Amino acid sequence: MKPEFYIAGRFAFKRRSATRPTFIILIAVIGIAVGTAALILTLSVVKGFASSIEVKLISFSSHMQFRQPDSRLFMERRSEMQQVLNDPETVSGGPFLEKNFILKSSAGARGERGPAGPVMVKGTDEEERRLFLGKFLREGSLNAAQEDGTIGLYAGSTLAENLRLKPGSRVMLAGVSGVSSGTEGGGMLELLSSLDLEVGTIRGIYDTGLQEGFDDFMMIADLRAMQDRFSPGMISGYEARVRHPELLSGTVERIAGELRYPFYGYTVFERYQNLFEWLRLQKNLMPLLIVTITIVAVFNIISTLLVLIIEKTREVGMLSALGLEPGRISRVFMTQAFLTAIAGILLGNLLALLLTLFEMRFHLITLPEKSYFIKYVPLIIDPTDYLAVSLAVLSLTLVFAFIPARIAAALKPGMALGS
């Protein structure tokens, strides 16, 4: 063992009577551990939050959609859907049909009029519907079969609360299939004839945590059932999920070019741009937090080493008088900083991991869902975060430990022994 390592270990961790260095080192280790754990947990929360919101938004509209101008309906063609699916980046997809309605729930038990409100019903194929409901269904059944001749509907939790809906509830859907262009005398009759009236049954209640424009507005139904009742053979567009979201823009442009005019495509990031800008703002605050915590950790190690140098001034003078070169004395304190940092980093990693697993298991920290779109603090265990934070803290500790290490090496034997 090199003398520097042996002396550094004795200085840092060897307990001796009437001395305080061991306690000082303990405080330094705890400080580095808390800083390391705070950095890791910050990254875990920010990544978990962004990932949770992104998954929910993609569940509503997939990664990309292809429509025609003015959101007009068009005839479904298998060849067009196959073009979307044949792209090497596409994982899955299908056609969809969206239609706006006024939904009126059934009358209450005492005969009062049932509440009504605007909704958008989105019809998807069975695979896409089960993929969405498999994640977010809270009440009811995945089976949307029309056993009683009504159209099966899945309502968001907020919409169900506002309109007093529950699985098995009957509702009335009223929509407009066309625009009246009749004369003054026949305008009302044409308007009435253009109404789409349909009875639906609530098959289940889903809950994504997203509020305005999502759980309080969107309803899910079977695509074929909607086509049979409202727009035979017609759809609003095609949607698909991709393997690599970071390549999404190029994928959309490529597929839209293959489908040709009048098709155009857009990504989930473009459709919900405001929400993703908000998430990006959350990520932009992360460097400020990291820098702040890192500065605290750096000053912690500097102050610790300076205190140790004061405490060990006589020992440093004796080592210098015995012939230990200034460079090797400097390495003693650099090694001490390294050992202290390693102990603090390992403890910080363990603390962050335990706190993360504990929160993921028991969900002790709750959030107002209407403000944050999630009920609990989302956390992600990413090994790269643990490695990156550990290396960053270790590197900065060693860089800034050079200052007090040079101070120790500059002490003169006579001055140090006489203090």
UniProtKB/TrEMBL annotation:
Native organism: Chlorobium luteolum (strain DSM 273 / BCRC 81028 / 2530)
Residue ranges of domain MacB-like periplasmic core in the record: 26-243
Any one of the GO CC terms: plasma membrane protein complex
TM segment ranges: 21-46, 285-310, 337-358, 386-405
Membrane topology: Multi-pass membrane protein
Protein name: ABC transporter permease
Keywords: Cell membrane, Membrane, Transmembrane, Transmembrane helix
Entry coiled-coil feature ranges: none
Family, per entry: Belongs to the ABC-4 integral membrane protein family. LolC/E subfamily.
GO biological process: lipoprotein localization to outer membrane
Domain ABC3 transporter permease C-terminal, residue spans: 289-411
